[in-house]
Amino acid sequence: MTLRSLLRAPFLVLITCLTIALTTGDALAHGVAEGDKAFIEANPGINIIPYSYLGAKHMVTGYDHLLFLFGVIFFLYRLKDVWTYVTLFAIGHSLTLLVGVYFNIQANPFIIDAIIGLSVVYKALDNLGAFPTIIGRQPNQKAAVLIFGFFHGFGLATKMQDLVASRDGLLTNLISFNVGVEVGQLLSLSVILILMTLWRRTPSFNRSALVANGLLMCAGFILTGHQIAGYFSEQSI
For the CA atoms of 50, 56, 62, 63, what is the dihedral angle to 10 degrees? Predict the structure, then answer.
C-alpha cells in the first residue's frame, strides 16, 4: 500500500485498533503488564521515570483513548480548537486519575470501560450530526469532551490501582504517571493530526468522512459490548 492510498483511507486505523482489541483482550485497554507490575512491586517508593514511562505507554497503546481523540479532532481544522478540546479532555482524565487513585475510589473497570466505549460512539454520532435528529438538539460539545474525560481518567485509575503496591511516594508517582500520559497523548495526537491534515487535502476526505465515522461508531459499540460481556462473565464466576 502506498502512502497516498493510506492517506485516502485513514479509517484503517480504526480497523487496526479493533483487531488489537479483539486479539489481546484487556492487555492494552488500560492493562498492567506483568513485567511492569513486578518492577513496581520490587521498587517501592518514588519512581518518577518508571511511572512517567508507564503513563506514556498506557496512552500510546490505549486504543480507546486514541479512537476518542480521533473522533474529537475529526472536524477540527484550527489548532486553537484542537488545543481547546484536548485540554478539556486532559483536565478531565487528569483529575479523576489523580483523585481516583489517591483516595482509592473503587469502581468496576468493566462498567467504566463500557462507558469509555460509548464515548467513542457518542463522538461518531456527533460528527455525523445525528443528535439534532435523535434528541432534537445539539449537546454542548466541550462539556461532553470534559465529562467523558472524567470517565477516561477513571478508567486509567481502576487499572492504576492494581499497579500501586505501596502508598510510599504515591502522590509523586501519580503525578509522574499523569505527566507520562500527557506526553503520550501529545505524541499520539501529533501523528493523528499529521495524517488527518494530509488526508483532508485529498479529494477522498469528504467522500470517506461518513464511512470513517460509521466505522468509528462500530468500534465504540464493539468495545462497549466487549466490556459488558466481561462484566457478566465476571459476575457469573
Answer: -150
Q: Residue 158 and residue 119: Cα distance in Å, rounded? A: 17
Digit-by-digit pLDDT tens for the chain (237 residues) are 444 444 444 555 555 555 545 544 443 444 556 777 777 777 778 889 989 998 999 899 888 999 999 999 999 999 999 999 999 999 999 999 999 999 999 899 999 999 999 999 999 999 999 999 999 999 999 999 999 999 999 999 988 887 776 788 899 999 999 999 999 999 999 999 999 999 898 888 888 899 899 999 999 999 999 999 999 998 887
pTM above 0.85, yes or no: yes
The DSSP string of 222-235 is: HHHHHHHHHHHHHH
